[in-house]
């Protein structure tokens, strides 16, 4: 790892973050487009949840993690407080691993 | 820097602290891993301060450790962060109404701060939630990084605490208010399936972007005024329950399932 590499990564990441925010300030989006932008954010976040739950890179992450996310997700759907959701998910995955589930 | 912390809701603070605790643990594991990989302490601290993107930071260190080129590592990490652009587009009005706020707010735009703000009613509450979550997580990530770097091999694997399950579950919980809309549920389901299929053939970062194709399942714009109740759009103050964001201020048990608030 070198300084030029780090500064390229930091600068590039920052510009990606700023670009979206800046665009938002410049254009007035019609309601239809606004809906797609909003649904697009949901699509990206759900895709992130799905891949982070099931995969490590391109291979299956094992059963403990998706089981934890499933328990947390059910609790969230039934309107459990956020902290409870997070703790349930972590505890489920940790408990399964403690008894040998990968 | 004037932050809108007066408008912070106590329940939002509690939720953000839970995320901060989890991210500190991951930050510690990053610090320990990067130190073990031979990255200099100054670069480790600078990376967490200046990049502040967990996935990208882990990826860079992993690629370099595995003997890959630094250019390839940075390119792969930037690809992983491309999703921040559409996130910014979606959440711009919540972050700040003017330039100085956006210039600073851009640095704490991460998956969690975006999802955290979108789960709150648009307006002052979401604005305060974004800054609260962003600054707390930034602090936790950096404190965690330094602690992990100093502790080195003494840092346990976050997976033994199930932290790797806590993050997707937390994001999912923050998505629940949005996913109560049928069109968002269709889009989300399609996005998940497409991203998982893409992950079998595409490098990290791209599968999540492929998830955007889930928009093809959006269908027509639903008619009627309830459209204004979308989580990140202008909407009625009481809409969008799902996390406990709209619970009454008591600390009592959550309402029974199916209770319509």
List the helices and strands and how they pair.
The complex is a heterodimer of chains A (102) and B (261).
Chain A: H1 3-26, H2 31-54, E1 55-56, E2 59-60, H3 64-77, H4 82-98
Chain B: H1 10-36, H2 41-50, H3 54-65, H4 70-80, H5 84-95, H6 99-105, H7 111-118, H8 124-151, H9 163-179, H10 182-199, H11 206-210
Commentary on this structure:
The complex is a heterodimer of chains A (102) and B (261). By secondary structure, chain A is mainly alpha-helical. In chain A, 77% of the residues lie in helices and 4% in strands. Chain A has 4 helices and 2 strands; from the N terminus they run ααββαα. Chain A has helices at residues 3-26, 31-54, 64-77, 82-98; strands spanning 55-56, 59-60. In chain A, strands 1-2 form a two-stranded antiparallel sheet. In chain A, a hairpin with a 2-residue loop joins strand 1 (55-56) and strand 2 (59-60). In chain A, helix 3 (64-77) runs antiparallel to helix 4 (82-98). Chain A is extended, with a radius of gyration of 19 Å. With 261 residues, chain B is an all-alpha fold. Chain B has one domain (5-242). Chain B is 59% helix and 0% strand. Chain B is built from 11 helices and no strands. Chain B is globular and about 60 Å long. The chains are: A mainly alpha (102), B mainly alpha (261).
In short:
The complex is a heterodimer of chains A (102) and B (261). Chain A is mainly alpha-helical and 102 residues long.
Shape of chain A: extended
Largest β sheet strand count, sense and barrel closure of chain B: none
Number of domains of chain B: 1
- Total helical segments of chain A: 4
Please state the overall shape of chain B, judged from the principal axes of the Cα atoms. globular
Question: What is the share of helical residues of chain B?
Answer: 55-70%
Question: Would you tell me the structural class of the helices and strands of chain A?
Answer: mainly alpha
Low-confidence stretches of chain A: none
Structure class of chain B: mainly alpha
Q: Beta-strand percentage of chain A?
A: under 5%
Q: Mind describing the biggest β-sheet of chain A?
A: 2 strands, antiparallel
Distance between the termini of chain A: 32 Å
| Annotation field: number of helices of chain B | 11
Q: What fraction strand of chain B?
A: under 5%
